[in-house]
Write a structure and sequence with these properties.
148 residues, mainly beta, Immunoglobulin-like, five-stranded antiparallel sheet, four-stranded antiparallel sheet, 51% strand
Length: 148
């Protein structure tokens, strides 16, 4: 039997605006809360907490980039009866020409159900893209720190 795997707490698919339109060539989304959901074995959805983040799309020269700043999580369910969640947020960006289309924050060990990155200032993830991304998925994950 291999080491235990990370567990998905919940996720949210965030459609992005059409970033190729002239009015969206430089685009900012203020920090906002996004509800994440877990999917049951039967296919039903239930709320699994919230993630607060901001987005910025623009040219960080010489290439385009989507900067995602993850600030905090709230109301995440406890996945283990023995310890608190070791929380990281993974962001996946879909679109043509996106380098490193999957990135994650650092893990907050024993973060539990409510945790912040950089004392609420947030942790930044930068996705370099040749073309405008179309969708982004946010996942809160309980990392198995015991397997390191």
């Amino acid at each position: 039997m291999g080491p235990p795997a990370d567990e998905l707490i919940g996720s949210y698919a965030l459609p992005l605006p059409n970033l190729t339109k002239p009015e969206n060539l430089v685009w900012d989304a203020e920090p906002a809360w996004h509800d994440i959901s877990e999917t049951s074995a039967e296919g039903g959805q239930s709320k699994a907490g919230r993630v607060r983040l901001s987005l910025h799309w623009g040219p960080p020269a010489p290439e385009w980039g989507l900067r995602v700043v993850v600030f905090e999580c709230r109301g995440l369910p406890r996945l283990s009866a023995f310890d608190k969640n070791d929380v990281k947020v993974q962001v996946k960006v879909q679109g043509d020409g996106v380098e490193k289309s999957k990135q994650h924050t650092t893990t907050i060990e024993d973060g539990g159900g409510d945790c912040q990155w950089a004392h609420g200032r947030g942790e930044s993830l930068l996705f370099i893209a040749a073309a405008a991304p179309t969708e982004m998925t946010i996942e809160a994950i309980d990392e198995d720190t015991g397997s390191r």
